[in-house]
């Protein structure tokens, strides 16, 4: 029981760092304390522990951000939370004011098999009821079509080694390679018409302030894409 509580505690910290920070932005101890409603002194001790475990990078008086190891855990639990919110809202018709807290209670015990089944029922959603982007699955698929058509049990499916982010989350001039595409066959065909497929090298050239429109390089050619498309194409940073 103690290990389970520790695991849930770790996941809560990593979720906050995933939500409020990135690889260049450190989240302050004060912010973490307020979000988790935990005393600053206790937060500091936990951050030191998480750094020892390799989940975060911690700098006293500056705060913390996620390591690659921590990012993987945080992205996975954030995906489960947002998939649950979508399922509770769209399928079970749970009242909006109750959705978040119920998802928080359920996310730590939701199995990968159940998460995958929910995603299939919801037809691979890209945003949760709060319009926050749903991270990609952790399984080693190239697209949602591959996931839907795969008949293997969840234990037989490999886990992706690299961390993925959407094209919209790239920094300017950051180079990457397309590794996963969310959506059905129509989405895949539309992207192929733009020259975007699994393995395609891309680079973010420019983006509007709200990221509703982006200019990217695809195999050396500049292409304009919408934020909706960018949020459904996930890449490995080179």
Short description:
The protein has 238 residues and is an alpha+beta fold.
Unreliably modeled segments: none
Number of strands: 8
Residue-averaged pLDDT:
93
What is the quaternary state of this protein?
Answer: single chain
> Treating each run of at least 4 consecutive H or I residues as one helix, how many helices?
9
What does this structure look like?
With about 240 residues, the protein is an alpha+beta fold. It has helices spanning about 1-20, 30-35, 40-50, 70-90, 95-105, 110-120, 145-150, 185-195, 225-230; strands spanning about 55-60, 65, 165, 175-180, 200-205, 215-220, 220-225, 235. Strand 5 and strand 6 (about 215-220) form a beta hairpin. Helix 1 crosses helix 4 (about 70-90) and helix 4 packs across helix 5. The longest helix has 23 residues, at about 70-90. It is globular, with a radius of gyration of 18 Å. The model has no long low-confidence stretch (mean pLDDT about 95).
Helix and strand topology:
Elements: H1 2-20, H2 29-36, H3 40-52, E1 56-59, E2 63-66, H4 68-90, H5 96-107, H6 112-121, H7 144-149, E3 165-166, E4 175-181, H8 185-193, E5 201-207, E6 213-218, E7 221-226, H9 227-230, E8 233-237
Antiparallel strand pairs: 1-2, 3-8, 4-5, 4-8, 5-6, 6-7
